[in-house]
Specification:
By secondary structure, the protein is of the alpha/beta class. It is 35% helix and 15% strand. The chain contains 30 helices and 29 strands. The strands form 8 sheets. It has a 7-stranded mixed beta sheet, with helices on one face. Strands 22-28-25-27-26-29 form a 6-stranded mixed β-barrel. Strands 9-6-5-11-12 form a 5-stranded parallel beta sheet. A hairpin with a 6-residue loop joins strand 1 (129-132) and strand 2 (139-140). It is globular, with a radius of gyration of 26 Å. The termini are far apart. This is FdhF/YdeP family oxidoreductase. Residues 659-755 form the Molybdopterin dinucleotide-binding domain.
C-alpha cells in the first residue's frame, strides 16, 4: 500500500483566535446548543453505582461510541485528552447491573409495552433465556440447553436457510472473524453486518474507482488541507470529537464546506468542551453550505466537472491536474464527453443549485492545492449510493487529491467496530483480506482454514428478512436467524414487514447485552437470548479498526462481571463445536483472543501486526498514512478509474416532497433524548422550509400527516433551513415511509429516501379511509405523468 507512516498526534495552538468565535457571550448562553457540563453531570449520576469501573473504561479502553479511534482519552490526531457525550451516553451500557429477575421474567405483553429506551434502562441480560412458541414469558436456560437448541436447528436445516448478522455495537475484530469462519464452517454464506445499512456503497465504489475499500487518508490530513468537504455527513453530531479536528483545521486556514439538504446547525458552529476557548465562545466551523436536493449530488458533481472542462477550454491546466490524470487514471476522455452532454437546466433542476453556485464550488476546488472529501449516509443510503461515491472519487482524481498529505477520500464511520467487519469476512461478499468472488482469495482461505467454503452467493440482510416469508418448500426460506445485537424493527425500512418477517422464523437467536423491542417478538418455535460480554469484559482483550485504518487494542478491564455473559467470539466457537464437532476440532481454532489475532494476521495480509497487539495503547495503521500513495492504486494496472455517472431518475410526482431521515440525540437506534440539542426538534417534528409550508397553510407546531403508498407518519411542523421541496424526519421514527426491498444494485444498501405527501392532520383524518389516501396518491402521480 503506502510507504509513509503516520507521524502521530500534533499540538493545538495555545493562543485563542477571536475571529473564529461564535459569540463573546460565554458558554453560548441563550443559544440552542448542547449543554455539555449538565449532560456530563447527568451521566456521572447515572453511573454513580459503578464510578471506579466507569473511570477505568474511559481511561483504559478504546471508545465504543464511534470510529474516530480514541484509546483511553487519547488518539493519533491531536495531543491532549478527548471525551464526548456520545461516548459518555454509551458508557452506561457497560456499567449497569443485571436486569432484576421479576422484570426479566415478566409477561411478554408487559415487556412489549416498553420502548427500546425503557428496555435498555432495565439493565444487562444476565443468563441465557428461552421462550418457546406459545409461552408468555422467558424462562431461564443453561448454556447447554440454549446452545443445544440452536445447534439442533442448525443440523436439521439446509444451510441456505440459516443466516447470521452482526451489528457494530462494540463488536471486536476477533468476534467478526470468528463469526465469519463459523458461518462458513456450518455451510452458509448468509452472514452480514451493520455496514449493509451504512457504508457498503463506500467500499464498493472506492474499490472500483481506486482499488481500496477504506479511507485513503487520516484525520490529520484535515488539519492544513486547503478545503475540507463534508458531503451528507453531520460529523459534529455523530462523531463529536471530530469538531476538535475541525477546530484545528480552521486554525490552519482550512475552508470547511458542507453539502447537505439541511443547513445543520451543529456543522455551522459548535462549542467544543475540551478546548477552553471553544467551550467559552464557540467555534465557527462551516465557511459555506451548499444545500442540494435530496439525491441531487450526482447532478451537482456533474455540474462541477462541467465547469472544470469549460475552464480547461479557456485555459488548459486551470482546473484539471493533467500530469496526475495522465499518469494515474483511465477514462478521462469518456468522462469529459459524458459531462459535456449534460445540459445546465437539467443539472440545476436535479441538484437544486444554480449554475453560479456550482461554478463557485468548482473554482474553489480548482484553486485548491489540496482537499479532503468526507462523506456519510447522506451519500450512501440511496439506490444509487455507489454512483454517488464514484462521483466523489472522480473529483479527487481529476484534481490529484489522492495519495498525499492533506488529500484523500474518507467515508467517515459511525461505529467503532464497523470498519473491520468486512475486512474480517463478516459479509456475504467478503472473506478475511479479500472477496469471496475472487478465486485466489477463496483458495487462500480454504487452504488456511482447511475446509471448503460454500460455493453459492450469500444474501444481504434485507433479502434474508424477505426470505423468512418464502414458501416452506424453498431452500432459502429463513429458518434460523442468529443476530449479534441489532434491532431491525428500528433500523430497516417498513417496520410492519420486518415484524412479520422476524416472527415467521422458526428459531431466532439474540446474542446481546440488553433487551430491545425485536427481542420480544414471537418465533414459530423458539426465541433464544444469549448474554454477551462487552468489549471491556472479554478475556484477552480485543481490537477494533477506526475510520483511518488504525487497529487499536482494547484490554480486558478489571471490574464487575454480569452473570453468565460470555465473549462473543467464544459463543460462536461453542456453536460450531456443537453443530459439527469433528470439523470444529480439526479446523476451527478460535481458542483465545490472542489465537484469533494470530490467525487474522495470516488470513488478512494487511492486518499483519495485529498479532503483536497485547497491551493498553498498542496500535498500528494498516496500509500506511495514505492508500494509493503517489497516485498508485492497487488495481490491476495501478491506475484509478474515471467513471461516467448517469443522473438518477428523481422526478417527484406533483405535490410530493422528497424525504430523507436524520439522526438526533442517539447512538444508532439507541435514543438518548427526545429533543435534538442543536435545533430543539422533537423526534416527531418534520423539518420543512417555511416557503413550502405557506402554500399548504401550515403553521409551526401544527399537526400533520406525512404519507405515501408505503406508510404514514404523524408529526408536527418544524420550520427549518432545509432545501425547498425536501423535508426531513427522524430515523427510525420515519422508517414507516420507506419502501422495503429497494436496494442499491452494486452494494445492496437499502434505500432510505422516497417521495411523500404532507397534509394537515385534520384534512387527512377527515378523509382517512384507505380509499381516499390511495386515490390521493394515484391522482397526484397521474398529474405528474
Amino acid at each position: 500500500m503506502g510507504k509513509t507512516k503516520h507521524t502521530g498526534p500534533i499540538t493545538l495552538p495555545s493562543k485563542p483566535d477571536p475571529k473564529l468565535w461564535v459569540s463573546k457571550v460565554p458558554f453560548g448562553l441563550g443559544k440552542v446548543k448542547p449543554q455539555h457540563i449538565r449532560e456530563t453531570a447527568k451521566i456521572a449520576w447515572q453511573n454513580r453505582d459503578n464510578l471506579p469501573y466507569a473511570y477505568r473504561i474511559l481511561t483504559q479502553g478504546v471508545c465504543d461510541g464511534c470510529a474516530l479511534g480514541v484509546s483511553g482519552l487519547y488518539d493519533q490526531t491531536l495531543a491532549g485528552p478527548h471525551l464526548c457525550t456520545t461516548r459518555l451516553n454509551v458508557l452506561r451500557l457497560n456499567t449497569m447491573p443485571a436486569i432484576r429477575e421479576e422484570l426479566l421474567h415478566a409477561d411478554i405483553d408487559e415487556l412489549s409495552r416498553m420502548s427500546s429506551t425503557e428496555l435498555r434502562q432495565l439493565g444487562r441480560i444476565p443468563y441465557p433465556l428461552i421462550r418457546r412458541q406459545g409461552e408468555r414469558k422467558f424462562s431461564r436456560a443453561t448454556w447447554d440447553e440454549a446452545m443445544d437448541t440452536i445447534a439442533a436447528k442448525a443440523r436439521a436445516i439446509d444451510p441456505k436457510g440459516m443466516a447470521f448478522y452482526l451489528t457494530a455495537r462494540g463488536i471486536t475484530n476477533e468476534s467478526y472473524y470468528a463469526a465469519a469462519k463459523v458461518a462458513r464452517l456450518l455451510g452458509t454464506n448468509n452472514i452480514d453486518n451493520a455496514s449493509r445499512i451504512c457504508h457498503s456503497p463506500s467500499k464498493t465504489a472506492l474499490k472500483r474507482s481506486v482499488g481500496v475499500g477504506a479511507s485513503t487518508c487520516n484525520y490529520k490530513d484535515w488539519i492544513g488541507t486547503d478545503v475540507l468537504v463534508f458531503w451528507g455527513s453531520v460529523a459534529a453530531n455523530n462523531q463529536p470529537v471530530s469538531t476538535k479536528y475541525m477546530y484545528a483545521a480552521k486554525r490552519k486556514g482550512t475552508k470547511i464546506i458542507v453539502i447537505n439538504p439541511y443547513y445543520e446547525p451543529s456543522m455551522e458552529q459548535y462549542w467544543i468542551p475540551s478546548i477552553p476557548e471553544s467551550a467559552l465562545f464557540g467555534t465557527k466551523l462551516a465557511d459555506d453550505v451548499y444545500q442540494v436536493n435530496i439525491g441531487g449530488d450526482i447532478a451537482f458533481m456533474n455540474g462541477v466537472m462541467k465547469v472544470w472542462f469549460e475552464m480547461e477550454e479557456a485555459a488548459p491546466g486551470s482546473a484539471i491536474d493533467h500530469a496526475f490524470v495522465q499518469a494515474h487514471t483511465n477514462g478521462y476522455e469518456q468522462l469529459r464527453d459524458h459531462v459535456a452532454q449534460q445540459d445546465w437546466t437539467t443539472l440545476e433542476q436535479s441538484s437544486g443549485l444554480s449554475r453560479e453556485r456550482m461554478r463557485e464550488f468548482a473554482q474553489l476546488l480548482a484553486r485548491a492545492a489540496s482537499a479532503v472529501f468526507v462523506w456519510s449516509m447522506g451519500l450512501t443510503q440511496h439506490r444509487f449510493g455507489t454512483d454517488n461515491i464514484s462521483q466523489v472519487a472522480n473529483l479527487a482524481l481529476l484534481r490529484g487529491f489522492l495519495g498525499r498529505e492533506h488529500c484523500g477520500l474518507m467515508p467517515i464511520r459511525g461505529h467503532s467496530g464497523v470498519q473491520g467487519s468486512g475486512e474480517m469476512g463478516a459479509d456475504p461478499f467478503s472473506l478475511p483480506g479479500g472477496d469471496i468472488s475472487n478465486a485466489a482469495d477463496r483458495s487462500r482461505i480454504e487452504q488456511l482454514w482447511g475446509f471448503a467454503l460454500p460455493s453459492w452467493q450469500g444474501d444481504i440482510v434485507g433479502v434474508t428478512l424477505e426470505n423468512a416469508l418464502l414458501p416452506e418448500e424453498q431452500e432459502r426460506k429463513l429458518r434460523l436467524f442468529y443476530t449479534s445485537g441489532g434491532n431491525f424493527l428500528e433500523t430497516m425500512p417498513d417496520p410492519a414487514f420486518v415484524r412479520e418477517a422476524l416472527t415467521a422464523v422458526d428459531v431466532r437467536v439474540h446474542q446481546d447485552i440488553i433487551l430491545n423491542t425485536s427481542t420480544l417478538l414471537d418465533a414459530r418455535e423458539a426465541v433464544v437470548v444469549l448474554p454477551a460480554m462487552t468489549r471491556y469484559e472479554q478475556p484477552g482483550g480485543g481490537t477494533s479498526t477506526s475510520t483511518e485504518r488504525m487497529v487499536y487494542f482494547s484490554p480486558e478491564i478489571a471490574g464487575p462481571r454480569i452473570g453468565e455473559a460470555r465473549a462473543e467470539w467464544a459463543i460462536y466457537a461453542d456453536l460450531a463445536r456443537r453443530v459439527k464437532p469433528e470439523d470444529a476440532a480439526r479446523h476451527l481454532g478460535c481458542g483465545s483472543a490472542a489465537a484469533i489475532r494470530e490467525e487474522i494476521a495470516l488470513a488478512a495480509p494487511s492486518y499483519n501486526g495485529i498479532q503483536h497487539l497485547r497491551e493498553r495503547g498498542d496500535v498500528f495503521q494498516y496500509g500506511g498514512a495514505w492508500l494509493c500513495e503517489d497516485g498508485v492504486c492497487p488495481t490491476p494496472d495501478g491506475r484509478g478509474a474515471l467513471l461516467p455517472i448517469e443522473l438518477p431518475q428523481l422526478r417527484k410526482p406533483e405535490g410530493h416532497f422528497a424525504v430523507t431521515t436524520r439522526r438526533g440525540k442517539q447512538f444508532n437506534s439507541m435514543i438518548y433524548s427526545d429533543i435534538d440539542p442543536f435545533n430543539e426538534a422533537d423526534r416527531y417534528d418534520v423539518l420543512i422550509h417555511p416557503g413550502d409550508a405557506a402554500p399548504l397553510a401550515l403553521s409551526e407546531g401544527e399537526a400533520i400527516v406525512v404519507y405515501n403508498r408505503f406508510g404514514s407518519m404523524h408529526g408536527r411542523v418544524k420550520f427549518a433551513e432545509i432545501k425547498t421541496g425536501n423535508i426531513e424526519v427522524h430515523w427510525p421514527e420515519g422508517n414507516s415511509l420507506i419502501p422495503k426491498g429497494v436496494y442499491e444494485p452494486h452494494a445492496g444498501i437499502p434505500e432510505y429516501n422516497t417521495a411523500v405527501i404532507v397534509e394537515k392532520a385534520e384534512t387527512y383524518h377527515a378523509h382517512k379511509d384507505t380509499r381516499y389516501v390511495e386515490k390521493r396518491i394515484e391522482e397526484l402521480e397521474i398529474e405528474a405523468g
